[in-house]
Amino acid sequence: MYKFKPILKTLVWGTENWVLSGVHGNESVVAEGPEAGRTLNDIYGGEFPLLIKFIDAHDDLSIQVHPDDELAKARHGCNGKTEMWYVIGSDNGHLLSGFSKEITKEEYKAKVDDGTITDALSRYEIAEGDVFFLPAGRIHAIGGGSHIAEIQQTSDITYRIYDYKRPGLDGKPRELHTELAVDAIDWSVRQDYRTHYEHKQNAGIEIVKCPYFTTDLYDLTEEVKVSLSENSPFLVVICFEGEGSVNGTNIKAGEAALIMKDEAEAIFSPSGTMKLLTSRIE
């Protein structure tokens, strides 16, 4: 099992902790053990397919959208970005996900220009345990007061649509991609963008399954053994509350670990209580 050094980023709206990243120029480095200093991509044998972040939003993030693989490869030569959010905590936080009503491309541009684009988006007051799946193309934003675990494709491509006319950390307006976003946006409207699931204790709960990752939730007060999927080369373990051990190695809230397939199983042992997310590809 591998643990990695965190990659901390300070942004105009708060902070991001990239706990597992194969993004070029931001590759996670093994923190301890005989392979300390090696990168995640070295361990994996190529670009690691998932990017795992903890997001602490003190202020609202920009309204944004991510292109799908086809558009991202055509325009930028990289992967698109499908992602998910798991709400770790909320201080009167909220999330925006998807359109709340049908609008035309012309109405979209006008709403961006006059600062009313949020009026056309579905807004959710959030609490710990809320889950949102964000396929590429879904317009979205994280609101201030939100503490989020984010699991996504390995890609750093974002189209920033609207940013509240605020300056960046350098005092200059951040670049907007309002026009580029038009071809990336999924214009459909859904009644509910939240992901619903039934909570269980001391058992894995599948909360998201898509072509890019499958994510399970574990709320633990006792030891649980998990067999690694024969179809996946790895299992990512993300601790977001409490502490304990994974395969005998200590882990605590805010940390992630990587188990490669040759370990065959994962043993989660809480010290009191421990909450985990696991994610894999299949």
Give keywords:
44% strand, 4 helices, 282 residues, globular, mainly beta
As a percent range, the share of strand residues is: 35-45%
Largest beta sheet, briefly?
Answer: 8 strands, antiparallel
Structural class by sheet pairing and helices:
mainly beta
Helix count from the secondary structure assignment: 4
The N- to C-terminal Cα distance equals: 19 Å
Low-confidence stretches: none
Q: Report the average pLDDT across residues.
A: 96
| Rg over CA atoms | 19 Å
Oligomer: single chain
H/E order of the elements? EEEEEHEEHEEHEEEEEHEEEEEEEE
What is the β-strand count? Answer: 22
Structure described in brief:
With 282 residues, the protein is mainly beta.
